[in-house]
Structures are given as C-alpha cells and as structure tokens.
Amino acid sequence: SQQGEEDPQALSIQEGENATMNCSYKTSINNLQWYRQNSGRGLVHLILIRSNEREKHSGRLRVTLDTSKKSSSLLITASRAADTASYFCATDARSAGNMLTFGGGTRLMVKP
Amino acid sequence: DSGVTQTPKHLITATGQRVTLRCSPRSGDLSVYWYQQSLDQGLQFLIQYYNGEERAKGNILERFSAQQFPDLHSELNLSSLELGDSALYFCASSPWGRGRTDTQYFGPGTRLTVL
User: Fold this and answer.
1) Scanning every residue of chain B, which has its alpha carbon at the shortest distance from the alpha carbon of A95?
2) pLDDT tens-digit map of A22-63
3) Which residue of A has its CA nearest to B5?
4) Short-list A44, A34, A107, CA closest to A74
5) For residues B82 and A102, what is the distance between their CA atoms, to the nearest angstrom?
6) Are the CB atoms for B89 and B60 separated by under 8 Å?
C-alpha cells in the first residue's frame, strides 16, 4: 500500500517557472525523502528532511514538512528542461526497519 | 552514479522460470533494500537486509527470496515467474538501516520481462 500520495499527478510548465509538488502521508514518520526518476531509470536522491525539521534547501530545491498535516512540498525554482522527470516522496515510518514507502509520483515536464 | 550496481540491466524470460538479480551496495553500506516498480503497483518495498540478516519484509511474494552475503552483496531470487512479475527491480543501500535516519541510494535497476 502507498503511504504517500503526490499531487498533482502531472505538471507541465515552461522553463524558468517554479514547480511545486505536494505529498501527503498517513502515519508518523522518522523522515521524508524526495527522489527523482528519469524515464525508466534509477531513482536519484534529492533531499531528506527529518520529522523535527520544517524546511530544508538544496540548490534550487526547497522542501517543507508539516507533520501536523502529514504533508510535504517540493519546490523547484527556475526550472530547466533537464528537470523533466518523475518526482517521488518517500516516507521512512517509525518501524523496525528503514523501509521507504513511496507515493505514486508527480510527472513533471518542463518545456524549453 | 549512486555507487550501487545491479546486474543484469535487462532480463527476458518465460513464465515458470527462475531468475536471480544481483546487487552490490555502496562501499561501506551495511543495509540493502529491494524494491519493485510496476505500472499498476508503483514502487513497493520488498525486503531489507542488514549486515547479512533479514531486517524488514514488505510485500514480497513467497515465490521470491533474497539473501545478503558476507561481502554484503545481495541477490533477489524470483521463481515460478508469472506475467505480472514483469517490472523494474531496484536495489538500494544505506549506511545503517537500523533505527537511524538513513538516506537510501538506489541502483539503476533490472528490467525484468516475463513472456
């Protein structure tokens, strides 16, 4: 079963615009991670935000986490055509292992 | 390049067959995770090994099994294959995977096609 649900499922923007993707989850978490996947390829880790953090930045990426609402958002600023990919949030729940539960992903297309 | 390697890249086989997927974690990482990505089920966690021992189990079918060897590489064995097993299989590794916040680094995946 999927813990995280991304919204929107698909997003199309022009180069230079900002892209915002949202993720909601159901249970308490240790941390939340965002990954990027280019078509049919491996997942690339973008950023990890711990449950006691509210906001984190990495280059053009900004992630927020609201544990009271069980939601997170990923903002990509000044998007580029190379940002075209699927973006997944993944939660690491408070369980024995550190398995990740992924959402369905947001397919982002950035038009040049 | 995440440092996680998976072989083979592609695998085409027939129903009823058995295959083995191999994963080498990043140097020094003790945990290995297996995930399955299919169109209908999305990305799903299968199983985790930590330093040779099974740590957590997800939606892994009884026809599937895995192990982690003393050199920390891992193999995922899929048997009695069905058409629905066609998917991308990812391996990921992390330094710990035991009660600590861990980033998981994913390999490039093995694309399995069952005909």
Assistant:
1) B99
2) 999 988 888 899 999 998 788 999 999 999 999 999 999 999
3) A42
4) A34
5) 24
6) no
Q: Tell whether B105 lies on the interface with A, counting CB pairs under 8 A.
A: yes
B81 three-state secondary structure: coil
Give the dihedral sign, CA B115/A102/A96/B21: positive
DSSP readout, A53-84? -SEEEETTEEEEEETTTTEEEEEE-S--GGG-
What CA–CA distance (Å, rounded) separates A86 from B98?
28
Express each pLDDT in B30-69 by its tens digit.
Answer: 999 999 999 888 899 999 999 999 988 998 999 999 999 9
Helix (H, G, I), strand (E, B) or coil at B83: helix
Contacts of residues B64-72 at CB distance under 8 Å and 24 or more positions apart, as own/partner, are B66/B34, B68/B32, B72/B24, B72/B25, B72/B29, B72/B30, B72/B32
DSSP B85: G
Using the beta-carbon criterion (under 8 Å), do A100 and B44 form an inter-chain contact?
no
> Cβ contact (<8 Å) for A99 and B33?
yes
Distance between CA atoms of B57 and B48, rounded to whole angstroms?
6
Locate the chain A residue with the closest alpha carbon to B58.
Answer: A99
